[in-house]
Design goal:
7 helices
Amino acid sequence: MQRAASAMQARKYDAALDFLDEVTVLAPSFAEGWNRRATVHYLKRDYGRSMTDIERTLRLEPRHFGALSGMAAIFKAYDNKQAALNAFERVLDIYPMLRSAQQEVSDLADALAGQGI
């Protein structure tokens, strides 16, 4: 995990994925390994693989608010405001004081209120 973090910090995403692949093989029930791998896929704009790893993270740890935030970010990237809002609301169910999620819920709710039914 430390090597993956160093590679991520250096923006060596392929190397980070190699390390995280090893983590997920050696410790498949370690939710954070899957979440970090989802983050690297997201940074590479590979949203499909990121979402797959997010789903795995959430199966292992349903209250992983970071994974839910990542899911919401992917929905936003695809301009799926309602799904993004739902995901950010799930984040706030777990971590009500997360200011970034509070702001996202407010912004998305305002944007959706401006759209017709």
